[in-house]
Automatic annotation (TrEMBL):
Its EC number is 3.6.-.-. It is found in: Cytoplasm. Binds 1 potassium ion per subunit. Keywords: Cytoplasm, GTP-binding, Hydrolase, Magnesium, Metal-binding, Nucleotide-binding, Potassium, tRNA processing. This is tRNA modification GTPase MnmE. Homodimer. Heterotetramer of two MnmE and two MnmG subunits. It is an enzyme of class 3 (hydrolase). One of its GO terms (biological process) is tRNA methylation. (6S)-5-formyl-5,6,7,8-tetrahydrofolate binds at R21, E78, K117, K445.
Amino acid sequence: MSDTIFAPATAAGRAAVAVVRVSGPEAETAVRRLAAGLPEPRRATLQRLYDAEGVEIDRALVLWFPGPASYTGEDCAEFHLHGGAAVVGALIAALSVMGLRLAEPGEFTRRAFEHGKLDLAQAEGVADLVDAETEAQRRQALEQLGGRLSQVQARWREALTEALAMFEAAVDFPDEEVPADVAGRARPVLEQLIGELEAAAADAERGERVREGYRIALVGAPNAGKSTLLNALADREAAIVTATPGTTRDIIEVPMVLGGYKVLLADTAGLRDTDNEIEAEGVRRARAWATSADLRLWLVDGSAEGRAEVPRELQPGDLCILTKRDLPENEAGWKAVEEAAERRLPVMAVTARGPNDVAWLKTTLTERVIDALAGAAPPAATRLRHRDLLLEAAERLRNALAQDEALELAAEDVRLAARALDRITGRIDPEAVLGKIFATFCIGK
Ligand SMILES: Nc1nc2c(c(=O)[nH]1)N(C=O)[C@@H](CNc1ccc(C(=O)N[C@@H](CCC(=O)O)C(=O)O)cc1)CN2
């Protein structure tokens, strides 16, 4: 199998221009065979491309990036073709005939990682940037690609290396001139680090929300007006609306963008006891979605008789929305206001028929999303993978501190914490530890 890969870099479909990329040792040969010659490095050159039979494929812009100064670190070439599917197909066929192979997903970036052009966190930034649909996602991904997480990781890693050097010096050279209170000196360093790691792990949740969407659940009794409000907020008929209670059974998730952030708004089955197996499953799913959501809107038909049950999923900071404000307010509305006051939930009375009400609610939701996700700076950690590794590192350091006099065991815990941090950027550097010992303590001579 060839070590030289190719792939369309642009999406399939009708487009003015399509880009096909090639990376690997055969890239130069491929360009020479297809075009009249090798263009000057990194300079777009208009060339006629021919297949092995001498049939013209296209008049294209060809770019030549000799390694290692290329995206992947290998010899790379790009063909900027006319966007037709047949044009792309003809070039791909010609490259295949030469023995090059179609790249696997992410393989160009993987090669960039393997050649040290990017670390793992930056590679994730590339993936997130390609997926970015909102401004917030774009900013966050660009920070990660730019090495924000890598830089904080390097700072933590440095502190750990120093702490480890102290422990290892005390273990390996007990008779030398090592400061006797080595563990004592390492303690405040590790304590501070644990705090920073745990704070970054908590902040990673913000990063995950930016990537995946802030989740808002519409909950309440059947016929409270959840689907109508969802449609009004989404500005399209996403959910079926009928007068029959229990119409919505599955969860209807509508992606929206509020204030530059991705939001998932979910209409859920009306909460009630039911013998209908399908509806009961819908209620179970509604409760689960609502529990894990970032914000719940408790909808109550303010014009109804009786008293609406308070969903047990409600949390502090949720909103109570009285619907059908265009109808005369009734007992259900008054009772809900009382319940909301008791729980200190803000109340808004709206009608989905009134565009101003819908706009006002949207503004309120936008403020909530911004409050939750826009910090002073974008989060450094942005994925569950980062969060897990940060928490693992913090946990190892807590163990290290609990080792007390057992320096060897403490050193091992610190080493495991370092390994967890290394996995964030995907690199391991044990040489650095030894280097630090001799640099800081001048032992051995
Ligand atoms: N046509 C095209 N546009 C693209 C890309 C691409 O590969 N091709 N990119 C791909 O995702 C992004 C740009 N990222 C790139 C990152 C590094 C290098 C590169 O050649 N790096 C070399 C040289 C750096 C320099 O001279 O400044 C290196 O790192 O050594 C190229 C593109 C977005 N736009």
